[in-house]
Write a structure and sequence with these properties.
Length: 218
């Protein structure tokens, strides 16, 4: 019975996706939000988790550099999903970010990937509170000559958030200034730039840029 219900939910989800391709005015994340709710109470819970975390104060503060057009298209909710995908969904990464996020969310809703909303939300808040204390509003910007430049860079977002997630213990043993200096230096390194430049949307470079920041923080 459970499998049958999941299959029906998945069919409705696929139909919704196809109806909203092409000339749709909905953004990819708006379609994901609507799609998640087709899965019933668990899909609603996942949707609410994304929405609630997108309004967490430290997350808001560190993503202020996100472009206004992206914010209007539920870009912050997509960034929340992107954090979890970068943390646990490497197997679904194939070079196209939209497809990656779609596949990762589908795996959660179809129970192919475990996702405990309460514990994941607590970790998310902890990570972003720590990032805000150390890096502030420039957390996910590029750096040149030790100065932040431009808006939120998605590749930097992935690298910073996951590296912080993996090294929270080490970070807490150092001052915010020491953490800030280490991250700024690592972001300007040639090794990091090699993993965020052209062709950055592949699994090897995703892991590579996370590793550079993780090693700096460790």
């Amino acid at each position: 019975i459970v499998i049958k219900r999941q299959s029906q939910s998945f069919l409705r989800y696929e139909m919704f996706k196809r109806l909203n391709t092409g000339g749709s005015l909905l953004s990819p994340q708006e379609i994901r939000n609507c799609s998640a709710r087709l899965f019933g109470p668990e899909g609603e819970l996942f949707y609410r988790t994304l929405v609630e975390l997108s309004t967490w104060p430290s997350f808001i503060s560190t993503t202020e550099s996100l472009a206004d057009t992206d914010m209007e298209k539920r870009g912050r909710e997509e960034l929340v999903l992107r954090f979890f995908a970068a943390k646990d969904g490497h197997d679904f990464y194939s070079g196209h970010v939209g497809d990656w996020l779609d596949r990762y969310m589908e795996a959660i809703l179809l129970k192919k990937v475990e996702f405990d909303s309460q514990s994941e939300a607590a970790l998310f808040r902890d990570v972003f509170d720590t990032i805000e204390r150390a890096l502030g509003a420039s957390a996910f910007c590029k750096f040149k000559d030790d100065r932040a430049t431009g808006g939120l860079a998605p590749a930097h977002y992935e690298a910073i958030t996951i590296a912080f997630c993996r090294t929270l213990g080490s970070i807490r043993q150092n001052s915010s200034q020491a953490v800030y200096d280490a991250v700024v230096l690592a972001k300007q390194s040639q090794n990091f730039r090699n993993n965020v430049g052209p062709g950055a949307n592949n699994k090897t470079k995703l892991r590579g840029r996370i590793q550079v920041i993780e090693e700096a923080l460790s």
